[in-house]
Design brief:
It is built from 20 helices and 15 strands. It has about 475 residues and is α/β, with parallel strands linked by helices.
């Protein structure tokens, strides 16, 4: 750049429009100029955004969170912005002074090339449909955004880069799709054998040699434990540049924060009321994103975490004591998490639970209640619900109708046809993206729930070792 003197002060003039735009947006956000990220466990030095995304999990075992919360100026006309435009303006304060900052607008435009649908229903209710992406689940937002971020910053390294991810259902398919389309980075997916739907399994095992899928003889918590052990393993760190694509990676949460911002502004503009959100919750990444959007100042009155019969979080809200529980298998399988990783981010933002309980709550929904909600969905709402969304719908139906709520629909019901179709007595039309992928050849490897078994198999498969 160059500068000139004016009233004895130096004024920086960027060389190009992209630098000027980034500087202007930093000014509008009114946040300090150098955003850093710290661990929820507080035992490491702060990291840049690029470092936080590349590392995924902090070296002390904690999760990365912003060091401070920038003050965002939410303009009156923001409800008129497209989703990608609003996502850019919402996220730029966290990207300032990082190499990813100049790429953020292009990343948003490319990642979010599918619609975000806020459908208005009777009784002060709307449903935020997040299943219009390539794999028909809300995970497409975070997976595509993260893949494009990594594509922008990942330089040739001495170690083989590898995405390592555990999935309870939808994450695996979304990550496989995003990284196969946007990058050439190899992906390793762990999923609990026999505990996801058939169509979910096809979506994460049909991507060819770039994606290795492992059916683990255990629960999601076993899969997640293996991933965390790999990230802490000296051998794995020596041989791979490991990249996390679970919601432990902060790059997954940012775009999810953006759709809460978008929906809250749209709803408030239309109804002149501040909505609450009812969120199907498992590993709590989606819920944390809503908390962050509210923290940024977007109009969100209340938040309800809708859980299935995995009651760790509802018990925490009622007792004030955190005790992870063994995973319970339910119809809403993608939420079958007994020890959610993102509870650390919840507790970091709200170390005093009483402050969180002023506007948030957590409740559990049984399989019988899920089934009944799906069964009468068309009659009551004119909608077909997936089992996960049904947990949120059930809780909505227990509340006063004059209070405005947005139900978060996390997956297309066609992904769970063996559960939904017998309950509604009809076939669910297949989205084109799902229909295409169901005809692809599939491949997976069954392993015991140990890091040693995963290591032994990958030693044979990955040429870099």
């Amino acid at each position: 750049g160059k500068s000139f003197k004016s009233n004895k002060k130096f004024i920086f003039i960027p060389w190009n429009k992209d630098q000027w735009k980034l500087g202007f947006d930093n000014f509008v956000s009114r946040g300090p100029s150098n955003m850093r990220f710290i661990s929820t466990r507080g035992k490491i030095k702060s990291a840049s955004l690029t470092e936080a995304i590349l590392h995924g999990l902090a070296s002390d075992g904690g999760l990365f969170v912003p060091e401070f919360w920038p003050s965002l100026t939410i303009e009156k006309d923001w409800h008129q912005l497209s989703f990608s435009e609003l996502a850019y303006r919402t996220l730029i304060p966290f990207f300032q002074n990082d190499p990813l900052g100049l790429a953020l607008e292009e990343i948003c435009n490319e990642a979010f090339n599918f619609p975000v649908v806020l459908k208005y229903l009777p009784n002060n209710t709307a449903v935020l449909e997040l299943f219009h992406g390539p794999t028909c689940a809300f995970k497409d937002f975070g997976a595509r955004f993260l893949a494009l971020c990594l594509k922008s910053v990942l330089n040739p390294l001495s170690r083989q880069p590898m995405v390592l991810v555990a999935t309870s259902g939808d994450t695996g398919g979304a990550v496989a799709s995003a990284f196969s389309e946007c990058t050439d980075i190899p992906v390793t997916i762990l999923y609990p054998k026999g505990m996801i739907s058939g169509r979910q399994e096809i979506q994460l095992t049909s991507w060819g040699q770039q994606v290795h899928a492992f059916a683990v003889r255990g629960s999601f918590d076993h899969c997640q434990k293996i991933v965390k052990e790999a990230f802490a393993s000296e051998w794995w760190q020596k041989n791979f540049q490991l990249i996390s694509a679970n919601s432990i990676n902060i790059g997954r949460l940012f775009p999810q924060m953006a759709y809460y911002a978008y929906a809250s502004l749209q709803f408030q503009h239309r109804h002149k009321k501040t909505p609450g959100f009812i969120i199907p919750s498992g590993n709590l990444g989606n819920s944390v994103a809503a908390l962050w959007a509210r923290k940024m100042g977007f109009p969100i009155k209340k938040i309800i975490f809708a859980h299935n019969m995995n009651k760790s979080v509802p018990n925490y809200f009622s007792s004030g004591s955190w005790t992870p529980l063994p995973t319970v298998s339910t119809l809403a399988n993608a939420m079958d998490v007994g020890n959610p990783s993102n509870i650390e981010r919840v507790n970091h933002l709200f170390p005093d639970l009483t402050e969180l309980k002023k506007f948030a709550s957590a409740q559990s929904v049984s399989d019988d209640e899920i089934q009944e909600c799906i069964r009468h969905g068309k009659k009551t709402w004119g909608q077909i619900w997936c089992p996960h969304t049904a947990t949120a719908v059930f809780l909505r139906e227990q509340m006063l109708q004059n209070i405005p709520w947005i139900i978060v629909a996390t997956a297309h019901p066609a992904k769970f046809e063996t559960i939904v179709e017998p309950l509604i007595g009809e076939k669910i039309p297949l989205p084109k993206s799902l229909e295409r992928i169901l005809h692809l050849p599939c491949s997976s490897t069954e392993i015991k729930p140990t890091l040693g078994d995963l290591t032994a198999d990958l030693t044979k498969r990955v040429k870099a070792i």
